[in-house]
Amino acid sequence: ARAAVPDLTPLLKDKDARVRSSAAAGLGEIGPAAKAAVPGLMLLLKDRDPEVRLNAAAALRVVRPGLTLP
User: Fold this and answer.
1) Burial, 55: exposed, middle or buried (Cβ in 10 Å; 0-12, 13-18, 19+)?
2) CA 17 – CA 64 distance, rounded (Å)
3) Cβ neighbours of residue 6 closer than 8 Å, sequence gap 6 or more
4) Helix 50-63 vs helix 17-30: angle between axes, to the nearest 10 degrees?
5) For residue 65, what are the CA distances in angstroms to 10, 28, 41?
6) pLDDT band for position 44 (cuts 50, 70, 90)
């Protein structure tokens, strides 16, 4: 799963909200091994799409347990 992180991380900036949301969810499934994606996930917390924000927050809780979210 860790091998997918470099492929999923750029998708966090995709124009399509469904792609951004799915990428965030996928990174959350990978868990702590996806820590390189934390900066991109943090940016998604301000996304205009509520589902993207929700999946980013959920992923961050798994990837970086104990991280205080804004």
Assistant:
1) buried
2) 23
3) 36
4) 10
5) 22, 11, 14
6) very high
